[in-house]
Design a protein that fits this description.
The chain is an alpha/beta fold. It has a single domain (3-286), classed as P-loop containing nucleotide triphosphate hydrolases (Rossmann fold, 3-Layer(aba) Sandwich). 46% of the residues lie in helices and 12% in strands. It has helices at 35-59, 76-83, 102-105, 111-114, 136-139, 152-171, 185-197, 207-213, 216-230, 245-261, 272-286; strands at 12-13, 63-70, 92-96, 123-127, 174-182, 237-241. The protein has a six-stranded mixed β-sheet with strand order 1-6-5-2-4-3, sandwiched between helices. The longest helix is centred in the first third of the chain and has 25 residues, at 35-59. The N and C termini lie far apart (54 Å).
């Protein structure tokens, strides 16, 4: 199968008005995409991404923000590890957002995310992100420290604030890529059991994850509302079927690579004066 013929846009949500999460099957995989072919293409994408990142780092014209959201055990960590395996660590920063600290709670909820943004020339990955403030907090509104009434207007304002935040980033040359790793309840159960049975993975399991699983339906509704209200042409969501890890990696790697290629990145142009100085430097080194 040729990757060029594959339509990644089928997973892209630019207008969420009619979005329904129930229409997206976590187990889906294209029948024309064989696992063996996908692994080869994914390897090629990793190599291509390494080259693109090198030019991105040199040009300092854009920054890339990759947002990964999903249920516990949806594969966010392994996706980062796999897709970014070939890039220069100096140009990539992964931030995993946990419960906010006391200092972070003294600021607005976007503050800690803003200061973690990648500078121009670099790729930033948010493993969980500012979206936790309309996901976890929507399921557990008791976590919110505010004097404002938490009602439909409150959430409507938060969606607007997040859209404005991302709009500002895009207008200042940051490419925003948002991935929702859509895992099924059955697959999550399987992965939880694997973490319990495999001693090398015990550290990954938390009883808190099991507690949050009890709110499955509430989280599904929160994810649907978030995608519906924050998908735009410039900052779309990609809903990735995540039950098959190899297929999820194929999709995410392909999308990131394709988007970066469309930036038409190039190395900085050296002036004629600099070229002359380079030759002088070369001659001096040769004649040492």
């Amino acid at each position: 199968m040729s990757k060029n013929k594959f339509d990644f846009n089928r997973y892209k949500i630019t207008n969420g008005k009619s979005f329904s999460l129930s229409e997206y099957n976590p187990k889906e995989k294209d029948k024309e995409v064989e696992k063996s072919d996908a692994k080869i293409i994914c390897k090629e994408d990793i190599e291509e991404l390494s080259k693109l990142q090198d030019v991105l780092y040199a040009s300092k014209k854009n920054s890339i923000l990759i947002i990964l959201q999903g249920r516990d055990a949806c594969g966010k960590d392994t996706t980062v590890k796999h897709i970014m395996s070939g890039v220069n660590p100096a140009g990539v920063k992964v931030t995993s957002f946990k419960s906010p600290s006391t200092i972070e709670l003294e600021h607005d909820y976007i503050w800690r995310h803003y200061i973690a943004l990648p500078p121009k020339g670099e790729i930033g990955i948010f493993n969980r992100s500012h979206y936790e403030n309309i996901l976890v907090t929507k399921v557990h509104p008791e976590y919110i420290q505010t004097t404002k009434k938490i009602d439909k207007k409150f959430w409507k304002n938060r969606y607007k604030q997040i859209r404005n935040f991302e709009k500002t980033l895009i207008e200042n040359d940051t490419v925003v890529l948002k991935f929702f790793l859509n895992v099924s309840k059955d697959e999550q159960k399987k992965r939880f059991l694997d973490r319990i049975d495999d001693s090398s993975k015990n550290w990954k399991f938390s009883s808190a994850d099991l507690k949050e699983r009890e709110f499955w339906d509430e989280y599904q509704k929160a994810f649907q509302d978030a995608i519906k209200n924050t998908s735009t042409n410039d900052a779309p969501w990609y809903v990735i079927p995540a039950d098959n890890k190899w297929y999820a990696r194929f999709l995410i790697g392909g999308i990131i690579t394709d988007v970066m290629k469309k930036l038409n990145l190039s190395y900085p142009i050296v002036s004629e004066e600099d070229k002359v100085n380079l030759q002088k430097a070369k001659e001096k080194l040769i004649n040492e």
